[in-house]
Specification:
Layout (H helix, E strand, L loop, with lengths): L2 H15 L5 H10 L6 H11 L1 E6 L2 E6 L4 H12 E6 L4 E5 L4 H10 L5 E6 L3 E6 L5 H13 L2
Antiparallel strand pairs: 1-2, 3-4, 4-6, 5-6
Helix pairs in contact: 4-5
């Protein structure tokens, strides 16, 4: 399991078992478990995971928003993809600098049978269809993600 997956799993557990009202509280909770994280990384994790701020009894609390997670992330991803191209073998995405790996991770987690996998760099994602026959389908699917924002 990657450090990111481990960290995000711990974030989920902490949010389920504790009341976390600020990023600083989450950073402290993670550090208590030996996980070092910056504020910027935590913000990206929260965005990727669909963590939302809620107000209960006049107090702020961070929660996993399981109902809107897919829609929120899809909207975010659609803004991060700048261009989509394809050839007969693969689909190539150009992203905002530094966001390619997050976009690749999102596409991988869709678990679409037509997508064999992704490779994310700094600002480029290669999406590999499971078959040359599905390249156009994958291309159209990515374009739909962008249009749906």
């Amino acid at each position: 399991m990657s450090n990111k997956q481990l960290r995000q799993n711990r974030i989920k557990e902490i949010l389920r078992n504790q009341i976390i009202s600020s990023h600083e509280e989450m950073v402290k909770a993670l550090r208590a478990e030996g996980i070092q994280v910056t504020q910027a990384t935590l913000s990206r994790d929260f965005a990727e995971m669909g963590v939302v701020r809620t107000f209960t009894d006049g107090k702020v609390r961070y929660n996993l928003n399981t109902e809107d997670w897919g829609a929120q992330i899809s909207k975010l991803i659609s803004f991060e993809i700048l261009n989509v191209e394809m050839n007969e073998y693969c689909v190539l995405l150009r992203t905002i600098a530094g966001r390619a790996q997050g976009v690749a991770h999102y596409i991988d987690r869709l678990n679409k049978p037509e997508i064999l996998g992704t490779i994310g760099g700094v600002d480029t994602v290669v999406v590999i269809p499971n078959s040359i026959k599905n390249t156009q389908l994958v291309y159209e699917y990515i374009k739909e993600i962008i249009r749906s924002s």
